[in-house]
Amino acid sequence: METSAQNTADISHLVTQYKAVPGGLLPLLHAIQAELGYVPDTTVPAIATGLNLSRAEVHGVISFYHDFKTHPVGQHTVQICRSEACQSMGSRQLEAHAKALLGIDYHETTEDGAITLEPVYCLGNCACSPSVRINNDIYARVDAERFDDLMADIKAPVGEPK
Amino acid sequence: MSIYIPQDTTALALGAEAVARVLQAAGVEPVRNGSRGLFWLEPLLEVDTEDGRIGFGPVTNKDIPGILDALETDASSHHLYLGQVEKIEYLASQQRLTYARAGLGDPVCLDNYQALNGFVGLSNALQMDGQQIVDQVKDSGLRGRGGAAFPAGIKWQTVLDCDSEQKYIVCNADEGDSGTFADRLVMEADPYQLIEGMTVAGLAVGANQGYIYLRSEYPVAHKLLNIAIERAVEANFLGDNIQGSGKTFHLEVRLGAGAYICGEETSLLDSLEGKRGMVRAKPPLPAIEGLFGKPTVVNNVLTLAAISTILEQGAEAYQNFGMGRSRGTLAIQLAGNIKRGGLIELAFGVTLREVVEDYGQGTHSGRPIRAIQVGGPLGAFLPESQWDTPMDYEAFAAIKAMIGHGGIVVFDDSADMAAQARFAMEFCVVESCGKCTPCRIGSVRGVEVIDRIVANENRDDNLILLHELCDTMELGSLCAMGGMTPFPVRSALTHFQEDFFVQDAAGPLLEEATGVSPGGK
Ligand SMILES: Cc1cc2nc3c(=O)[nH]c(=O)nc-3n(C[C@H](O)[C@H](O)[C@H](O)COP(=O)(O)O)c2cc1C
Ligand code: SF4
Description:
The structure holds two protein chains of two kinds.
Chain A: H1 3-7, H2 12-18, H3 25-36, H4 44-51, H5 55-64, E1 76-81, H6 84-87, H7 91-102, E2 108-109, E3 115-120, E4 132-134, E5 137-139, H8 144-155
Parallel strand pairs in A: 1-3
Antiparallel strand pairs in A: 1-4, 2-3, 4-5
Helix pairs in contact in A: 2-3, 2-4, 4-5
Chain B: E1 3-4, H1 9-13, H2 16-25, E2 45-49, E3 52-56, H3 64-72, E4 81-84, H4 89-92, H5 110-115, H6 120-125, H7 130-140, H8 152-161, E5 168-173, H9 182-189, H10 191-205, E6 209-214, H11 219-234, E7 250-255, H12 265-272, E8 296-300, H13 301-313, H14 315-319, E9 322-323, E10 326-327, E11 329-336, E12 342-347, H15 352-359, E13 369-374, E14 381-382, H16 393-398, E15 407-412, H17 417-431, H18 437-454, H19 459-476, H20 480-484, H21 486-495, H22 508-514
Parallel strand pairs in B: 5-6, 5-8, 6-7, 11-15
Antiparallel strand pairs in B: 1-2, 2-3, 3-4, 9-10, 11-12, 13-14, 13-15
Bound molecules: flavin mononucleotide and iron/sulfur cluster (SF4).
Iron/sulfur cluster (SF4) is lined by residues 261, 279, 432-436, 439-440, 477-479, 481-482 of chain B.
């Protein structure tokens, strides 16, 4: 998670892998983000050159999609579903609770760098709402108490897989 | 004795992994099946016994020792015992075609798929020429399940008729509507069915490359699809010279990046090309100039999955289900504040009330149902007077509602419909592709105007303004994002007007305000 390392991050192997793939920009951006946690501005020139695009085009694509981050994020990304099905089961209260508990708003990261909070519009788990996604795991029927437990679980053993 | 515990998103989200671990610790290796879609019973543990396949649910890891004990003595004595799963009324009363296999076994086991009539449709298709396959699809009456309900056979004919070396099959697996999970369930519980349907589509129109555009919110589906594709390639159901036929079809999954608008087919194509997901003006139709400018079939997951059934069982068998011009079965997804949410596959024509009352058994909270939103975030909120509408494309259109992708979201009487109307506009602000001013700016204004109405600032003028804004969005938007966001807004205003006026001190203002006819302008 070291910013300095990522500022000079070498993504040439990824660019090489995707430059001949038709429509390869999105898969490339996903791959960069999977490796570095975000898509640093410093990687844009190499992406643009590799895929024969202008830097403006690459920036335009990165900014269009909610998934792509241009700044470092926390160790864990916590997404709360804001969609109608989850609202019908109290996700508005849940999001207020989560923001208060973590002391951050959406798109922010806790001071210790552990958690970034994001909204999400539907996790496809709408029969057992409210839903929360933590990294690649989805949790159903999350009320305030369950949310507290989930946060306690990911905060406790630092560095260990959940 | 086989024990099953699902590996689909919902079961996992409710603790299926912990259940599997406890089973393993007890020396039982569970089959990780897909879900049957009876989500109110997940995690649903199933066991093959002399009395058939029985179920327990919803289980937690703590229930496992007790269940294993009961299985040694008298299974029916356990408090979570459900009897034979296939006799559970919720499931037994369904008309399952697309979901006939869902939950039966390991979704990525090829032998299992073939043992359950998998790839029969493909081998039938390999005996036909392109036109014969397209004719089957036309005769089936199948209409696109992604929302627009366009006849699939006609779309395929257009692509077949194009003279081009390169054509594509694109599966729309962006499933962005809240309250929907039918695509996810196909991909997680029966992915080969989608692979088969796409391969048949390729044979029909002469396309040798397919893409599944999958939303990034579906990590489990992503994993399972990739495993299934790899195995299908190994077994030569995909790739070159499929089953010795000389035909080629390659398939790849591409991930979206969190943009609702990329479910709109032309935005999706731009996204697949590696661009911003901007909606394209039509014409040209994607069928003629689609992905990378080539003729392209874009179909929803369920449309393509239904192709496997149609080619396996015949067009006539399929079109015998349904009513009017809505043929076949509809994957109803019952969600939100509901006691028994899940996937309900039925022929078109069942009423909304039957679904929420008979299957759903009312709200999860136990309070009365107040409003039902059908067809995702662009669908109208329906009050009780409209719940007897049969689920049929035309019947819904007649009441200014839509079936869309078949998602039903139930709200109880604590719902604030003014807040929901505001959310509809807010969602449009967040997800608009930005091409049209009425959608991009109109939605921002919409949020502000609703706030003013609720705060009782110049309410009469603002109500008129909101309706004018809705008119402008409906008329001046290129796609349904801007064009249909007014549907939930107007329906909330028409049927749940009182929610917009709750902040009033009551008295004259309220009367004055409710005197405004929201529909009339
Ligand atoms: C804003 C918007 C979002 C859409 N989202 C989806 C979606 O998530 N999945 C889908 O299959 N179709 C979606 N559609 C419909 C597609 O544009 C298109 O009609 C569909 O993919 C065609 O496939 P079908 O004929 O099999 O339904 C959306 C349309 C609009 C206007
Ligand atoms: S209506 Fe909205 S989402 Fe659709 S094309 Fe216009 S700006 Fe884009």
